[in-house]
Write a sequence for this structure.
């Protein structure tokens, strides 16, 4: 039961509420932060399209969670998924061939409802290109830059751990 081709957007609650100006019920955000996987489906989808999409997303979200050696998250333990509808909207895309996407299916992503490995990450819109660094505000960004600028990584005496021990 494969849905028609569709755009998907993986976004944090902060991005959706503060940047994209989408109203999200605070109860949904709370559930996502407790480990429930939340998907937002455009209201323009017919009931049949919604059902196909729900079936597909459930199968995708639960795939691979049976491996006991993976990083554990509340979602991996509970395996709960919830769907909600949202008013269709356009979003900026990093895809140069199609910079604007219309009515994507949105995964409301938090660290608690991620799978052990997400094949995409939440890229940050900062002064750095193609980065995963995120800063709460300009002050945090400036502080980080001023303390890290010009130092080699060895100066930080980094210690690494295996992902399975995380």
């Amino acid at each position: 039961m494969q849905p028609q081709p569709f755009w998907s957007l993986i976004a944090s609650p902060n991005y959706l509420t503060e940047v994209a100006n989408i109203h999200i019920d605070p109860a949904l955000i709370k559930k996502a932060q407790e480990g429930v996987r939340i998907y937002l489906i455009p209201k323009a989808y017919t009931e049949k399209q919604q059902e196909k999409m729900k079936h597909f997303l459930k199968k995708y979200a639960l795939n691979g969670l049976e491996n006991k050696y993976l990083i554990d998250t509340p979602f991996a333990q509970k395996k709960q998924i919830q769907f909600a509808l949202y008013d269709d909207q356009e979003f900026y895309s990093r895809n140069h061939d199609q910079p604007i996407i219309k009515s994507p299916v949105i995964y409301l992503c938090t660290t608690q409802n991620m799978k052990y490995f997400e094949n995409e990450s939440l890229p940050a819109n900062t002064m750095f290109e193609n980065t995963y660094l995120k800063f709460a505000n300009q002050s945090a960004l400036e502080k980080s830059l001023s303390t890290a600028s010009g130092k080699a990584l060895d100066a930080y005496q980094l210690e690494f751990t295996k992902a399975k021990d995380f």
